[in-house]
């Protein structure tokens, strides 16, 4: 198992969009993106996560002339609204060809459907065959899905031999570990990429600075921060430790709005390589699942 910065991946949604509920810096410019990618390469961070739906993220990576130096993971457009299986397949192929051009690479490490529903809905078998064909062509090494829930994972594993999955996990949301999906994926030798370890920055905020719609997170954040302090950890160190503790996770995908932020992330990952942390009692459950899923935040 990789450790330290080698276990990290750069999340690049902020290279293409002003993303994140706590993001006040806006979209990352090309020069700053180049600096982040250069620093990543120098510190053994090889995985870059992007998507066709991340604005001009792929083009920014391509302009930074760094695409060929990394293991790039990208994602398809969502095709659930297409009117036929042929249209869905055409949308995926066109999207992927555009991704390759924008990234200025000849191939990528992995291609995932951006929404697991595209491998579980009405066009699922055609979509899967399309991904298999792209893989057989040598343009990608691994195919899989970005998921939101344990049910997504259970259904995908029952139907397909996926190579890779991206899933949400963080200190307040360990459901996929507790309910067995991490173990099921590892048993099938599926590469696991973790996202949302900071929950768009919310978990890094002092409880009193939470936006009002997230006020219900405050009691758990207070308990979490106290546990981290008792373990002599900063909040960022504790959040990383909560995810690094799971050996089944192959990569932890983390975004940054600036080079300074990414330097702090890499430094934290380095520090944790040699720390022995007793986190057996770390549990701060959230009763309202909407708080843990950005796709549901509009309902809060």
Explain this structure:
38% of the residues lie in helices and 13% in strands. It is of the alpha/beta class. It has a single domain, classed as Alpha-Beta Barrel (TIM Barrel). It has an 8-stranded parallel beta barrel with strand order 1-2-3-4-5-6-7-8, surrounded by 4 helices. Helix 4 links the parallel strand 3 (71-75) and strand 4. Helix 3 (57-63) packs parallel to helix 4. The model has no long low-confidence stretch (mean pLDDT 93).
| Series of secondary-structure elements, N-terminal to C-terminal | EHHEHEHEHEHEHHEHHEH
What would CATH call the homologous superfamily? NADP-dependent oxidoreductase domain
Q: Spans with pLDDT under 50 lasting ≥5 residues?
A: none
The CATH topology label is TIM Barrel
Beta fraction: 5-15%
Secondary structure: elements and pairs:
Blueprint: E1 8-11, H1 13-16, H2 30-42, E2 47-49, H3 57-63, E3 71-75, H4 85-103, E4 108-113, H5 124-136, E5 140-146, H6 150-159, E6 164-168, H7 175-178, H8 181-187, E7 191-195, H9 218-230, H10 235-244, E8 251-255, H11 259-271
Parallel strand pairs: 1-2, 1-8, 2-3, 3-4, 4-5, 5-6, 6-7, 7-8
Helix pairs in contact: 2-11, 3-4, 4-5
